[in-house]
Specification:
The complex is a heterodimer. Chain A contains 3 helices and no strands. By secondary structure, chain A is mainly alpha-helical. Chain A has a single domain (10-97), classed as Helix Hairpins, CATH 1.10.287. In chain A, helix 1 packs antiparallel against helix 2. Chain B is mainly α. Chain B has helices at residues 4-24, 35-61, 95-118, 125-144, 148-166, 173-204, 209-216, 232-249, 258-261, 267-276, 281-288, 290-293, 297-319, 324-344, 348-375, 388-391, 393-407, 413-427, 433-458, 474-479, 500-515, 526-531, 547-573, 575-584, 586-593, 598-644, 652-672, and strands at residues 68-79, 85-94. Chain B is globular and about 115 Å long. The chains are: A mainly alpha, B mainly alpha.
């Protein structure tokens, strides 16, 4: 069987996607290191990307793949800005621990 | 041009007021001398005087029936359609209020000039003169207004200025509360005035004087009858309600109590506001609405009785007062009673005549008293004066003229007006021998207490300690500062004549008091003819007495005045004798000295219960209920906030978690609905 004819069941892919997404979400909620949190966000974005591609394939519609390009672009920009913020924050607070930068409380 | 008469003082008020507010009132503001604000204020009122004089001459050249100058400044309010309520800020000058305008601006100018000298040691002359000018503005608006609301605006304005000026030295508690008393008592009267105005509007549909008058006039110009559809009872109610307003403003029983206390203000204020002008506004209103009052014999009877009793009552109190200004204050109340007596018997002309002559001689007496107080280093007790004749010769001379004028000796002005009133009280169809007798007895008492005042102040031996050796030259007095006015420790004072800025106006007023009566000589009265268009002959009650009676009564009143003077002279020549007499009638004297305990009566019957009620309401309702409710709201809010703030952890991840739950819940609801 040629590689191009290799088929994966869509539900398997979708299940995989949601697993990744929830792993990202769990990381986002419970991890305290901002860098990890940023990575978790990336993880969630990529899970969504995969989902889009899957549905695009299922429905034979290119709209999903279009969205993926947008998301990749936005994600790139987002991580650039996010890392910049983390660096700026680290310079002032000398920490990347979210427990120590709960400035909204005051 | 007419509107400029009140506008000039308003401009003066703005200049002085702004100057005071911007440069002196702020902390660390500069000290001021009275000269500059005084000159500004005097000039602005003097400009009004010139203008009044010009307009008076203009009126004089017109034919008698057409003597009216009108000016509408702007439309004040317009309610409803073309037939709705329309009110203009309009002024109208006719033969009645031109006299008032002349007196207000003329006497006002003199008093402004006098104040420059009198207030020379005051710390805030800018404030004083701005109030004084504001008062003139309001007073001129009162007399010039073409309709009742404009009059009322002035009426309230003068009340405000009166309050401000009585409490001018507001750091003194007693003076501040005298101001409040005046204001509150006047509110009672104003309430009646307002009700009267409402009733006029619902009855006649207009508040304009000319429109009202037209309602009472038949085709050929004479006063006809009460308009169709208006009951005499309504007219009486209107007149009585308006008279309640007059009771307050013009200090009649039972609302006169504020006027004697108003003497807490600076003396020029007492002269201008509480003797010459403001307190006569009630007489002005009655004279202005004479066409209406004439149709209510009941109201006229009430006015005459109240006036006569006020005159008598105040005169009895004046006999036993020792404060020079208090005596003059009660004398003012008494004279105002005379004016209302005149109006009440339908002799409006006589009332207006007495307003004019009284303005001259009472302003003179007050300013003279001010000069005495100034010269005696703020001493006001006449029992501690005496012998000022040689020490203050000018003041003595002018005061003597004022004294003779108020006693009613011919040919001084008071004689003509007072005699006219007494004659009308006796002879008019609304008058009676009873009213005349009250008036005549009052005249005798007036002569007595004024002579007492005059004698104790100027004649006899000095009863105060004088600074030994009057070595200081006169020039030194004018330049000495306020400190040298304070009494030395041993109570000795340096009595001195007042500066020219004070004696000058006194001399002018003395001349006016002496000859002012000539405008109303009986039987050839210029005043009567001049007022004819406003106060028609028909309004004057018809006389049906033998002419010789008039001369008899005149003789009686002059004789009474002479007797009063002579008795007082005889009594106070020997102070021991006066003291013995006082001893003999100690009970009566105590009652009179305490003003018949009216203040105490009001205090007990009205002020105390209201005060207690207010206290009870304050403690049991305001604090206990309202405050608790309001504070409760605050406390609940605070508690809610305190509890709710604990969920704000500041941790972004918690927020994100809540966001997630919300999202899941929303999406779940959208997809599955409420399961």
């Amino acid at each position: 069987m040629a590689l191009s004819e290799f088929q994966v069941e869509p539900w398997l892919v979708l299940a995989f996607c949601s697993a990744i997404f929830f792993i990202g979400l769990a990381g986002l909620l419970i991890r305290r290191n901002i860098l990890v949190i940023l990575m978790c966000i990336e993880l969630m974005l990529n899970a969504v990307n995969l989902t889009f591609v899957t549905f695009s394939k299922i429905h034979n519609h290119m709209g999903g793949q279009m969205s993926v390009f947008f998301i990749i672009t936005v994600a790139a920009a987002e991580s650039a800005v996010g890392l910049g913020l983390v660096i700026a924050m680290f310079r002032t607070v000398r920490s990347v621990d979210t427990d120590e930068i709960q400035l909204l409380k005051q | 041009m007419l509107a400029w008469i009140p506008l000039f003082p308003l401009i003066g008020f703005l200049i002085n007021g702004c100057w005071y507010a911007f440069f002196q009132a702020p902390v660390g503001g500069r000290k001021a001398h009275a000269t500059l604000p005084g000159i500004i204020a005097s000039l602005s009122i003097f400009a009004s005087f010139i203008l009044s004089l010009l307009l008076f001459l203009q009126l004089k050249d017109m034919p008698a029936e057409a003597r009216v100058i009108e000016q509408t400044v702007f439309n004040w309010m317009h309610i409803g359609g073309s037939s709705g309520f329309h009110l203009d800020m309009a002024f109208r000058l006719d033969s009645l209020n031109t006299l008032f305008t002349l007196v207000i601006t003329g006497v006002g100018t003199l008093i402004h000039i006098y104040s420059i000298g009198y207030m020379s040691h005051d710390a805030t002359p800018g404030r004083f003169f701005s109030y004084l000018n504001l008062f003139c503005f309001a007073m001129l608006m009162l007399v010039l207004g073409a309709s009742l609301p404009v009059l009322f605006l002035g009426w309230e304005g003068v009340g405000l200025c009166s309050y401000l000026l009585i409490g001018y030295w507001y750091t003194d508690d007693e003076k501040a509360s005298a101001g409040k008393k005046a204001f509150i008592v006047n509110r009672v009267g104003d309430f009646g005035f307002l009700l009267g105005m409402f009733l006029i509007f619902t009855t006649f549909g207009s508040l304009d004087f000319v429109a009202l008058k037209t309602a009472f006039i038949s085709g050929h110009g004479a006063l006809a009858a009460i308009p169709a559809g208006v009951s005499p009872g309504t007219i009486t109610a209107i007149c009585l309600l308006l008279f309640v307003g007059c009771m307050g403003k013009s200090a009649q029983i039972p609302l006169y109590v504020w006027l004697p206390d108003a003497m807490a203000g600076p003396t020029p204020v007492s002269a201008l506001i509480h003797a010459a002008t403001m307190v006569t506004s009630g007489i002005y209103m009655v004279a202005r609405l004479n066409f209406m009052f004439s149709f209510s014999p009941t109201a006229l009877g009430v006015i005459a009785t109240v006036g006569a009793f006020t005159a008598f009552f105040a005169a009895t109190v004046a006999i036993a007062q020792n404060d020079i200004k208090k005596v003059l204050a009660y004398s003012t109340v008494s004279q105002l009673g005379y004016m209302f007596l005149a109006c009440g018997v339908g002799a409006y002309t006589a009332g207006v005549f007495h307003v004019i002559t009284h303005a001259f001689f009472k302003a003179l007496l007050f300013l003279g008293a001010g000069s005495v107080i100034h010269g005696m280093s703020e001493e006001q007790d006449i029992t501690k004066m005496g012998g000022l004749r040689t020490r203050m010769p000018v003041t003595f001379a002018v005061f003597a003229i004022g004294w003779l004028a108020i006693c009613g000796l011919p040919p001084f002005s008071g004689f003509f007006s007072k005699d006219e009133i007494l004659w009308q009280a006796f002879s008019s169809e609304h008058g009676s021998i009873f009213l005349w007798a009250l008036g005549a007895v009052t005249a005798v008492m007036t002569a007595f207490y004024m002579t007492r005042l005059f004698y104790l102040t100027f004649l006899g031996q000095p009863r105060f300690k004088e600074v030994a050796g009057p070595g200081k030259s006169h020039a030194a007095h004018d330049s000495h500062g306020h400190d040298s006015h304070a009494k030395p420790k041993d109570g000795a004072i340096h009595v001195h004549e007042s500066p020219l800025s004070m004696t000058g106006p006194l001399m002018v007023l003395a001349v006016l008091s002496a000859v002012g009566g000539l405008i109303g000589i009986p039987h050839m009265s210029w005043l009567e003819k001049w007022l004819e268009p406003v106060i028609p002959e028909a309004a004057e009650a018809a006389t049906h007495m033998v002419p010789s009676m008039e001369w008899v009564l005149m003789g009686v009143s002059v004789l009474g005045a002479v007797l009063g003077i002579a008795y007082a002279f005889n009594l106070y020549k020997d102070l021991a004798k006066a003291a013995k007499l006082k001893q003999r009638y100690a009970g009566l004297h105590k009652i009179l000295e305490n003003k018949w305990y009216v203040d105490e009566f009001y205090q007990g019957v009205i002020v105390r219960p209201i005060f207690n009620l207010s206290q009870a309401l304050w403690k049991n309702f305001d604090v206990a209920v309202i405050d608790r409710v309001v504070l409760g709201f605050g406390r609940v809010t605070q508690w809610t906030g305190q509890s709710a703030r604990t969920i704000q952890t500041g941790s972004i991840q918690v927020y994100a978690f809540v966001l997630l739950i919300g999202l899941v819940a929303s999406v779940g609801y959208l997809i599955y609905g409420l399961v």
